[in-house]
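Progress report, Aim 2. The chain analyzed during this reporting quarter is listed below.
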Amino acid sequence: MLTYYLTLFALALLSTWWIFKKVLRIALDKNIVDNPDARKFQKTPVPVLGGVAVFFGIIVSLIVTGIFYETGSLFAIMGVMTVMLYVGTMDDILSLSPKLRFFIEILVVLALIWCNGYSLNDFHGLWGIGIIPDWLAVPLTVFACVGIINAINLIDGVNGLSSGYCITACTLFAIVFIWAGDRESASLAVLSAGALIPFFCHNVFGLKSKMFIGDGGTLLMGTVLSTFVIGALDCDSPLAAKADPGFGMIPFTLAVLSVPVFDTLRVMSARIARGRSPFSPDRTHLHHLLFDLGFSNVGITGTELLSTLGIVGAWFLSYRLGASLDLQLYIVLALSFLATFGFYWWARRQQRRDTRAYHALQHLGRRTHVGHTRWFKRFRDFLDRGVKKKAEPTADRANDRNRKQTDSHCGERSTSRHPQEQSNVAIQ
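Predicted structure tokens for the chain:
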């Protein structure tokens, strides 16, 4: 069984690695790029078709898996993944209406529920609640999945953040699904992690080979993670049958999604508290704070991934120590709140007061800058090998791309948008 999953992982990784530079060349030739402007830190246009390369690696591996094993339930997932990639890529190129995107996301989740018959219809004993009726489960599933999709889009902030987080989340879900014997969900999780790794390497370490994942990639991976949550919490899921009564499936899934979900809730609630629309743009995400503290892209990504792993680790420890389902949830909620709401408020307060703690954070941030190290440069040169200099954008394309400044994010895909927010700042 281990050989099977390692083979899937390697196949997805190699497929994405092989196609990456071909997609990069297409993006450069067709000028499908994110152009620099006064509000961005990047100095040259950066292609935005990284999601296409990741999708290729996933689909190739799914097709090969289907040849040898029965993967009927993955057919519907492949369909919704294709739709979301298409919608996101069209948004990258043509700038779709946020309302249209939001409407399509709802339809896609409903289609997934209809085709697979899975939904968030079981609380698994949390608060003494078991299976809930469909009239409540379906809207709850739509609300949760659309929220997850857009939360993943929102963390598309700095190089490596969204892809690094998705690799981590897919790995955690893969471990649980393998343990539960859910071959199909485990296969999708394993090959998704494998397909993301080549993109992550080029996005973080590449210079000429750097490519943003784009809305196509974030919507794609948000959809994949949504299917994992549904697969974990449905009453008929293999995980539900395998897990003992003390295994908090809702606390586990929330712990994995803690940082992007709670950071989104914090940003929205802060805007409402200031009397602004929750959808108005600003620079108040957690990665903006870390950037202001002087953290590098690697430092920001590492900090948020370590926060996620810390919360998941705390949940697992509470489970192993016999904590009740309710207590497991409260521990995850408390730590998620502290890692996002609490840390952001505390750090901004230290910044305003110019305290020793603020200077210590700045010092820590400076220590995360590794772009000048020998190993970093050697790996960058290896990734950039064979990539020609990026073409300068034409005036028409530049104007088109500059009209798409719609999310106050920075980095992996500096013009990423989502149905709720519009504004952007790139960190390079």
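The longest strand covers residues 33-34. Strands lie at 33-34, 46-47. These observations will guide the mutagenesis work planned for the next reporting period.
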